[in-house]
# Entry
Amino acid sequence: MPRTIRILPDSVVNQIAAGEVVERPASVVKELVENSLDAGARTIEIQLRSGGKRLIRVSDDGSGMSREDALLALDRHATSKIGSAEDLRGVPTFGFRGEALPSIASVSRFALETYANGEEVGTRIRARGGTITAVEEVSRTRGTTVAVENLFFNAPARGKFLKAAAAEARVVSEAISALALAQPSVGFSLTSDDRTLLDLPSSTDVVDRIGALWGEEVAEQLLAVEAREGSLGVRGVIQRPDATRPGFRRAYLFLRDRPFREPSLLQAADRGYRTTVPREHRPWLFLFLEADPATVDVNVHPSKAEVRFSDRHGIETLVEDAIRTALEGEDSAATLDHRPRAPRLQVRERDAGAHGGEESEEESQMALFLASRSPGEPASQADSNVQAREERQGSDRQSLDRPDGEVPPRLWQVHRSWILAEVRDGLLLIDQHAAHERVLFEEIMRSFQDGEEAGQRLLFPLTIRLTPAEFQVVEDLGGLLLRTGFEVEGFGGDTVIVHAVPTPHPYFDAERCFREMIEELAHGSELVRAAGNQHERVAMSFACKAAVKAGQILDPREIRELFERLFETELPYHDVHGRPTTVRLSRGELERKFGR
Amino acid sequence: MKFSITRQNLHQGLNAVSASIPAKTTLPVLSNILFEAGADGVRMSGTDLDVAVRIRVAADVEQEGRLTAPGKKLQEITRELPDQPVEVATRGDQIELRCGRAHFKLNGLPADDFPTLPEVSVEEGWTAEGAQLLSLIQHTAFAVSTEESRPVLNGVLWELRDGEMRMVATNGHRLAKMTIPAESSPQTTTQLIVPPNALQQVKRLFDAADAVRIAREGNHLGFVSNGTEVYTRLIEGTYPNYEQVIPKDNDKFATVQRKPLESAVRRVAAVASDQTHRIRLQFSEGKVQFNVLTPDLGEAHDEIEVSFSGEPITIGFNANYLLEVLRYVGTEEVKLGFKAPERAATVEPVTGPDEEALDYLCLVMPLRLVD
# Structure
């Protein structure tokens, strides 16, 4: 009987593996750049020809390899980065499967040049379709250069799926952007057919890198985020709500320095933003997560694009809370400043020469974002930069969030619509309607929980005729309406009698508020569609319709009360429509404007 | 126009009139005061188009004439003039003031630009004692509504019946009603809705001793006494039937010392919600207990002695409304009446031997209590 089951030769196995790891030039670049990073490179240069279809060249100044190591690297599952299955948990390096180089080599014309300190001479290895065709001596500086030519020359089926050169180059650029964000201390350059696509100088600050990638104005719209809960941590920068736009977003998640995708974490982040941005807006996010390596599985996918958290709920809650907390602060307010201060987000410089398996690796990786921490301190302590920042925020808060502090800010109403507040660091312009919306929204949401809202009984009850659809809404909402303060009774037909009403301010028109609110809830609106649940729907609609209107003259006591109540809310800088309540103008900007 | 006037008379006239001048106006002539020199002295007028005030002051008129001049500036100048006669004269549209060695020229505007004051003939009207009028205004005007969707509630209802005058004001949450015996008027049953600004001017400009002639002409009301005139537009519309909401069947009554009650309300209200100011009162035999429970803030409990008759009752109020009516009721003892926790409570004065009896009633609608 002929044997039908055969062991595949290595060349075929590598091609199959290549199918998983090597999809397109961008995946080759990603694998090679990750190897460079793992080798402790300080500068990485990437060159493409025809979007990487003709040539991909990645050069680094990392530790390089000895000839033996270089030859071994082309063997499948040859890796320096783990030694046993136990090491898989909490792998600190990018690569560890030992699949990448042989896989890439198996579908291209491949050349590797490397030199490590202590070697007599450098090594050049050439391979074609995975078969080594030459091993030569070469003289070069420390580091490794890998050239991949004619990708998929022997796998035309895959080659056909490649897109136009420009599109492939764009994908490469995106892949490098993600890696470069996590590694601001490493300089990157990307050229495609001699055109420079990226030129990212080394920096200690992620925000600098964001500025280098997408422009300074993006960097200036960012807001620092930080939270920690047990072994879970998140740090990063997010877009200020007033800078968000609908449509395209940049959202990057990193676990230690690995970029990964996880839609549920982006959703958690969006939940953190809720009510501070319009529903269709997509805030930009750059979040660096930390977790006990034992609770994270990064080996879900060969390209390690996905990460599995054992405490998924915990990490989602942490992200949501971190963002919500950041949006509570004054830095999240819209600003008139031409050059608002950008936050700083420092990461630890990679240890040059730190290579997989070395004792210090785990340490340095865990400590990535804790720049000036001295070894031996618990990892949960924030670094001094973060502390300094928090101190600064803390003192700002005193002047703002606690207006009843030593010197209450002076307040004026301007154009019957805005409140101008003089605060230590400049001016705040507060939209009186938006501010009152935020106050009422949070009050109603609280009253839904503790059932403490009181309705003022009326001497002359309101008789209100509704459409059948509106009447239905009133019937369905019954209890919630009562919590907002409206006590409603059917009067036969589509008519209701309102016996008690809320009294949010002295100029409140209860009948109009009730009609507008019921109409909005019956027929929908942008605002109520943005709500997450029925409670929010009612609270948002009520807040919007009941808040003091623009054009209403407020007396000084009312102005002060509104100001104080605004800063008692959780998110004083954002109304319920996703618009700012407050625009600030810093003293520094004023001085600049007047040429001081 | 040319006249000589004492500084006091000029100052008094300007003070009386300038309060009716709008602080900001798009119509420049409204920031001016109209001077009219005639045989019987000088009349000064100011208006914001809703309420107008005209004062006659004694002066030696040398030459009759009319001119408007900036009210605030004249007031500032006159306040600091020496106590000497002031010579006032016009030259074209300028007004000239001479007093001692001081000499002023101010640009005015032609008198014809000034709005014509309503023509109300007080001979047709009725007379009210200043004291009565002031008392009515004092006890009711506070209760008008500040919310603009029901304009009639922004005014004070003034009812004239045979033999009595009554004022009522409400914002739909609380109501104040006061009645005073009055001489019968020719306009036997009249309902007027008067803007509270006008009543504030009346209160400011007339004395308790004045006999004030009042008359209505079309949509305007005029008050005249001793050369002082106040005119106002009336608010049009039908006042809600307030009689219907005054409870007739309250059957639980508490008589209580006003001052201790006010103090107790004020101190427990410190812990009440900033928005609703809700406090809870629990009346039973011999006492009223106060309870406030505000999430996030804390709680307050207190108790004072009262004389109470009827079934025990627990009722919630906006502390501010309660304090307000207690302040206006003003007597040493007050009487509170209740029917049920969702029905209107009444607050009435209890007049002691030294106090003048008042026909005065306030209603306060409760806050719904959620349990």
